[in-house]
Known about the structure:
With 407 residues, the chain is α/β, with parallel strands linked by helices. The chain is built from twelve helices and ten strands.
Amino acid sequence: xxxxxxxxxxxxxxxxxxxxxxxxxxxxxxxxxxxxxxxxxxxxxxxxxxxxxxxxxxxxxxxxxxxxxxxxxxxxxxxxxxxxxxxxxxxxxxxxxxxxxxxxxxxxxxxxxxxxxxxxxxxxxxxxxxxxxxxxxxxxxxxxxxxxxxxxxxxxxxxxxxxxxxxxxxxxxxxxxxxxxxxxxxxxxxxxxxxxxxxxxxxxxxxxxxxxxxxxxxxxxxxxxxxxxxxxxxxxxxxxxxxxxxxxxxxxxxxxxxxxxxxxxxxxxxxxxxxxxxxxxxxxxxxxxxxxxxxxxxxxxxxxxxxxxxxxxxxxxxxxxxxxxxxxxxxxxxxxxxxxxxxxxxxxxxxxxxxxxxxxxxxxxxxxxxxxxxxxxxxxxxxxxxxxxxxxxxxxxxxxxxxxxxx
Length: 407
């Protein structure tokens, strides 16, 4: 540090010479501080604190070899005020540049360490949650929708229904598949019912069931009712989820995919006793053999392909599970498509709710303006969107990941 005394001796020319020499020395020191060798050292004017981050000390302009106040005082004495003022401004610019460089270097040195600390999860559970969910191939899922719809109407007991059943099974070759087959006696006669369950084992106890029905309405069998959104979209969604689960044993709960049958009512308007045959039978079967105690959550997919997607919050669903779905949607950036409306829906999840299983219905129950497309010949592929399949598929997979973290 160069100190300039307030009572310098000698002539004005000598004083000016000393000031010039002091400024030149300060400039040389500044250039030396910027050299590569000096850059490896702790920069002047800061130290390392307990956290390892630089702590700034006060920097005085006298440390750089000049005093602006002294310059102004001498300028008044020797008559070179304007020239000295210009010189002072030039050196102040140098000082400003130096300080800016100093702060940039300090931030650059400290930032990587801070980011690395924040990026390290505290626990294995946090690390698992931080992982990205598997990619959902919406284009492939949409192709599945088209292929299912191409079979035509698929009411229970029909030839087209059997074709769709075989189509689903063909995509599950090599997987562990259980078929729950039985017969019902309805007001319209006797019908075979075939539930399909694909099982993907996990390393943890507990089962997460993801379900969709695949039949279309018996009362609409004589019109060209294709059920593109109602049944085909969710069945295709499950086929694509199977693609994501297939392979190595998953780290988490087992996931069972259920294509349930005879969901649609045998009468219109909807008649509860003549509907939900597949899930009512399976829920009772699992209760009898003890399986239902292992089911951690039941996620139902229904009417999820609508291009104008707005998934409803269902009052019959388990509140904490619906909240978890919203959390999953928020994590992947799709929360705007969830729970703007609240409904009370009787659907495939109800038999499991009645037996104490946490269950949620992912359903967009407003299909077209004022639900105009539902259960009509207007339920066709052109009303659907691959983007909607991607949204629901991704949120479903993220919900499964969050369920894996729960005790």
